[in-house]
Amino acid sequence: MKRKALTDKVIVLGVDGFDPRLAKKFMDQGKMPALKEFTGRGSAREDLVLLGAMPTVTPPLWTTLATGANPGTHGITCFFASDPVNIDTMYYNLDSRQSKAEPLWNVFAEEAGKKTLVWHWPGSSWPPTSDSPNLHVVDGTQPSGINNGIPFLDLLKVITGSEKIASSQYLPNTSHVAQGQGCIIDNAADLMEDGDQAETSVFRKVIAAGNHAKGFQFSITEQDECEIEALGNMVCDTIKAAIKPAAGWAQAPAEAKEFTFFVSGGLERRPALILPNEQGVYDSIQFYKSKKETDPYLTLKRGEIRFDVRDTVKNDQGENVPCNRNYQVLELAEDGSKFNLIINNASQVGRDDYFHPKSLYREVVENIGNVPVNFRVNGANEILVRETMLPSWENYCNWQAECLTYFMKNNKYDIIFSHLHNLDGVGHYFWHYACNQEEWKDNNELTYQQYQEEAYCQTDRYLSKFLPFLDQGWTMIITSDHGLLTQEYHGVILGEIHGVNVPVMAELGYTVMVKDEKGRDTKEIDWSKTRAIAIRGDHIYINLKGRNPHGIVEPADKYELETQIISDLYNYRDPHTGRRVISVAVRNKDAVHFGMGGPECGDIVYFTEEGFNKIHADSLSTQWGYADTSVSPLFVAAGPGIKENCVTERVIRQADVAPTIAALTGVRMPAQCEGAPVYQIISE
Fold it and tell me: Which SUPFAM superfamilies does this one have (predicted)?
């Protein structure tokens, strides 16, 4: 099919976790003027909703947006993939080689000859699947941020300084849990007087393994679920610093105070000075690599945050490796007697591993700056959310907008597919706290709901950077993979994407764990008694003879067992509320109605009931949550080829986005495309 191109330039502004329900609320309140202008100058549904594919989790949905194919067709059916034989084993799924569908960017680059950029698209973009010189790809190995799949050189540091501390202590790999409104650093320091290290959770084991993770076999317990659901623990190096009068310095004022902190995994000690201003108020900290130096490498005022600090840390061989990291002084007493300080993870400068071609990395760094690294701090503490987390993402948004608009101003590309993770990035850390957190009420309003609003206003500021390009011939698609829902009911462990979901299936008698000498469940499955397991989000596998190594279910009994499991799931009630937990449960062959089914899906596919869904990934895409949240993704289009001020009643599906872009640009549909152009919003 050959069509007249209605536009020569397209940019997809993808924002992970962008919820149309919240976006419309804030837009109608006048708090998202850029989104309002995009809708006025373009087309969308009245509710801004895009009907999401399922499952409602990042890798499948960005792959659907790129290919026009549903998850059952392209084969990416959860954040992780399941081994159909070793059914308790998971494989990392953000790998383009796992997808069975052609992405639209290959069509642009190979056949249309269009210069195409795929910018951190976490759905079958890396490694590049075309060797066309027209295709440039940046990362996509994970959703959180560019180069976040590369191990950090040095862990985040939480430093508490006090004159009451007799000698400095370095506590590696500790876990911080916020308590109430007090600063997380004070609380964590009090909790760890003995220097105990926290046990690494199942979740952190998976994440630490990065994009090479394969073959994990583990179970989710109630404790694991709590950690995953809230992401409340912050793993970092804790330093308890003794504040003393400055002594032995090449140059230090008489009234200066000093402390020592540790970097490079504790291998390197560094000194710092706490200094007063002209009024005698201690309001700044200077950081040095040794007391012999006369000039600090960084000076920070009380409350100041500094991004992209150029630094070095030592590797295991003792060599200095260049890095960039963020520093922030959260608190500093006016008399210099105590402070709270955060130093972020160290990201190695010069890593062009996930830039194709490599020259693109140099161009970005030389013209815009180093790839930012975000603070990974505790979302349960409102101080850290307000003063650290949101400003950190503001910095990242500005950097990314500068990168993309630089390419657009200089006509580097005709087509850009881009992804931003700020809403999802902060949402998983504090969205759930928006529900009935009475202890954080401020002026009769829930503080965490205010932070939801601020995150959306931040996204609007990001989108505003692209508005001028509507007048320069660019067509813009603003979309997302899913929304972020604030959960109302907690404690039911089913639909968790990071492992085997044990408790409900064990209670129903289908999954049995090996017992220890005291009769307690271990994290090992007893395959001689286990008939089925729930693994990842939305998937249940039968332990089938002839297919699975330890199978005990006869193939002739599979159909009836599936019937029994589905019936039991519908009948299951939350022991705390008495409410039904499962919304839909079907056999694999019937999951085609949801765009799923096939060899990459479980024998049974299920979705949780509204209220029990956890942020996203375990429910129907149309479900709503507390505080005006929903799981649905968003869609707005504007620019050449798109009708202006058009409100359509059409149900726009996620699989329709790629064919709509293809129709606008006059190229063929991707080979496995199942969607259709949204004709109702196209100008011709």
Answer: Alkaline phosphatase-like
Q: Give dist(CA 562, CA 100) in Å, integer.
A: 28
User: Is residue 436 over pLDDT 80?
Assistant: no
Residue 554: Cβ within 10 Å count:
11
CA distances (Å), 202 to each of 30, 156, 536, in order?
42, 20, 13
Please, what's the b/e burial string for 617-626 (b: 16 or more CB within 10 A of its CB; e: otherwise)?
bbbbbebbbb
Neighbouring C-beta atoms of residue 476, cutoff 10 Å? 26
**What order do you get walking across the sheet with 582-587 strand by strand?**
219-220, 500-501, 532-535, 539-542, 604-608, 582-587
Q: What angle do CA 162, 167, 170 make, to 5 degrees?
A: 90
For Cα atoms 364, 366, 370, give the angle at the middle one, nearest 5 degrees: 65
C-alpha closest to that of 228 among 495, 448, 489: 495
pTM: 0.92
Which backbone phi and psi does 583 adopt, to 5 degrees?
-85, -50
What is the identity of the amino acid at 331? Answer: E
Task: Give the rounded distance of the alpha carbon of 46 from its chain centre.
Answer: 28
The span from the CA of 325 to the CA of 595, in Å, is 42
Q: Where in the chain is the domain with CATH 3.40.720.10?
A: 8-70+89-147+351-485+625-679
Tokens 């869609």, residue located: 635
Tell me which residue of 489, 487, 483, 488 sits closest to 630, measured CA to CA.
483
Instruction: Give me the DSSP letters along 495-561.
Output: S-TTSEE-HHHHHTTS--EEE-TTS-EEEEE-TTT--EEEETTTEEEE-BTTTSTT--B-GGGHHHH
User: CATH homologous superfamily of domain 8-70+89-147+351-485+625-679?
Assistant: Alkaline Phosphatase, subunit A (3.40.720.10)
DSSP, collapsed to helix, strand or coil, labels residue 467 as: helix
User: Sign of dihedral through CA atoms 143, 76, 87, 502?
Assistant: positive
**239-244-247 Cα angle (round to 5):** 115
Angle at 120 between CA 25 and CA 464, to 5 degrees: 40
pLDDT, one tens digit per residue, over 62-104 is 999 999 999 999 999 999 999 989 999 999 999 999 999 999 9
Structural tokens at position 65: 């947006």
Task: Please indicate whether residue 316 or residue 299 has the higher confidence score (pLDDT).
Answer: 299
Query: CA 135 from chain center: how many Å?
Result: 25
